[in-house]
Amino acid sequence: MHVSLSRRRPSPTSWAGTILSAVLGASLLLLLFLPLYSLFTFAPWSTLVSEGSDAGVQTAIGFTLYASGIAVGLTLVLGVPLGYLLARRNFPGKSIVEAAVTLPLAVPHLIVGLALLFLLAPGTPLGSLADRLGVPVFGTIWGVVLVMVYVSAPYTVFASQIAFRAVDERLLEASRCLGATPSQSFATVTVPLAARGIVSGGLLSWARSVSEIGGFLILAYSVRPSPPYYGPETSPISVYIYNLYQIGTLPGAAAVSSLFLLIAFAIFLAVRLAERAGRLPALPGGFFP
Amino acid sequence: MSRWELRGVSAQVGSFEMGPVDLDLAEGEAVAVVGRSGAGKTTLLRAACGLVPLREGVILRDGIDRSTTPPERRGTVFVPQGLGLLPHRTVERNVRYPMELRRTPSASAVVDSLLEEFGLVPFRNRFPGQLSTGQQQRVAVARSLAADPELLLWDEPLSALDVSSRDELLDTLLAVRTRKRIPIVVVTHDASVALSLADRLLLLDAGTVRYSGAVGPLLAAPVDRFAARFLGYENVLSRNALATERTSPFGRWLWDRSGPGGVCFLAAREPRAEDPSQQVWTGTVRRRDLVPGGARLTLAVDGLAIKVFAPFSNGRAEVPGPAQPARFVISERDLKPLGASTDSDS
């Protein structure tokens, strides 16, 4: 029998390591997917179809996607520059800033809601200011966006920090000597090379935003129409599902959850396929391999 | 006609200080900057192109001060170690990059001719990561020329290249120098670059200039141990090593002829019949490397290791092997006393 010389036979130790890794990895996959399987199979598909065609469900899903889109946009606009500063500049108190950016990850989300409520409730100085500026927070889309930004910003900041740090400074120096001003160098070298990491960070922030509930329960349990949201009164999808659960409509809660998970999965898949197709730069940086 | 002058240039990076350095470059001239790691070679290039601010001194082009001109307008192109090719751009777009930045009209024609000139047409749509090191070097040269440089600064051009790619790139750099008349400063650890490309050498040691001038005089009389080793002297003995062997006749003989940094000489040779007047020394073969025409022996002479060339002469096809005695002579005029240097005196 022909044996390829170039293919090395794994040693018994590496076989054992591979099997152990596979067993442990499969256990984690089971842990991750069995609950989702039970969720998907809890309600009959007919319920999924009926819930999917329900106007209230569609409004809640649409609103959540809309609000999370605004939140991710804000997180990118505010978080990417901070990630850049943390990656490329040294300044007094940098470690404190890094720790402070991490803090929202450790704060229970009900507490996030409470903290924002104390800060921005009607009658508080900032709450009154927000009302006067026409951006009321309590029970509006801005409350939802604010909570989303608060809980998800660290992902964008740290992903972009890692991505910017991975850009070789020698490339920037070479580009400067080839005629690039600092801003051209940033636009033509830093941004394209860090883009994948930034996109990964944005995606993680989006995922974290739409999975939030604790902060919404306090600050925006029910969302009334207020610019820039002009639809009917609704709730973020997580709150909507929680309501269904509270009133005992378990098949409905399972069906709406499944529907939203399918949409989230489609979004993740679309980003990954865009990366594969080269529409997003598949280069070093970011959390995804 | 363009002329670059570095006058008393010094720069500081962290706690490291480089300079003062004086350097003149006329059109078509090439200077090799050599020295140990950490000697300040790359800092000098980065200061010359404006990536590191000068602490003192001026950089003049045709008498006009460019010391504070930003890198993108200075006319200097710096190719860093690793080449600095943009990994997200194809070969063609890398070469086009400087012209894109300057919105050069008819860039496509220039890019096409550069790709043609450097044999890159078959690779134009590949990314740098898909090229061999030699091909990447050619892309770097082509891209540098696309920037229309007035001074080319290259950090370690031949690093990580196999022999044929090295020769090829060396030819390319020589062509750039002679045909395009672009002055070049190369930082190199490779004597072949210094000896075949450069008119002059600048030897840096701990940030200061140890030698600046033509290659020939330094070849004839290396200033220190680094220069001697860099230029290919096979026997480089430090003053400390000689001091411990001063009690032996051979050690004493070398000690008396050494400078503050020791002494160097090319391979010693076996005694011939025509030089009976020369002092003949004996050592024990520690290692024998066969080479065309003979063997390069490493002899233990008291506590010193001496390299000797033993030819296959007079029909003899055998040379002494390990643990066998071997005789050799060293001509006094071949001994080059060395100046002190900052490396560990071993």
Summarize the structure in short.
Chain A has a single domain (46-276), classed as MetI-like fold, CATH 1.10.3720.
In words, what does this structure look like?
The complex is a heterodimer of chains A (289) and B (346). In chain A, 73% of the residues lie in helices and 0% in strands. Chain A has 289 residues and is mainly α. Chain A has a single domain (46-276), classed as MetI-like (MetI-like fold). The longest helix of chain B has 17 residues, at 163-179. Chain B starts with a strand and ends in an 8-residue tail after the last strand. Chain B has two domains: 4-226, P-loop containing nucleotide triphosphate hydrolases (Rossmann fold); 234-338, Nucleic acid-binding proteins (OB fold (Dihydrolipoamide Acetyltransferase, E2P), Beta Barrel), CATH 2.40.50.140. Chain B is elongated, with a radius of gyration of 24 Å. Chain B has a six-stranded mixed beta sheet with strand order 6-7-8-3-9-10, with helices on both faces. The interface between A and B is medium-sized, with 19 and 31 residues.
Fraction of residues of chain B in helices?
A: 25-40%
Total beta strand runs of chain A: 0
Largest interface (CB within 8 Å) is between: A-B, 19 and 31 residues
Rounded average pLDDT of chain A: 88
Rg of chain B is 24 Å
- What would the principal axes of the Cα set say about the shape of chain B? elongated
Q: Structural class of chain A, please?
A: mainly alpha
Please name the fourth-level CATH homologous superfamily of chain A. MetI-like
- The count of helical stretches of chain A stands at 12
Question: Structural class from helices and strands of chain B?
Answer: alpha/beta
> Number of folding domains of chain B?
2
Q: Report low-confidence residues of chain A grouped into runs of 5 or more.
A: 1-5, 282-289
What is the H-and-E element order of chain A?
HHHHHHHHHHHH
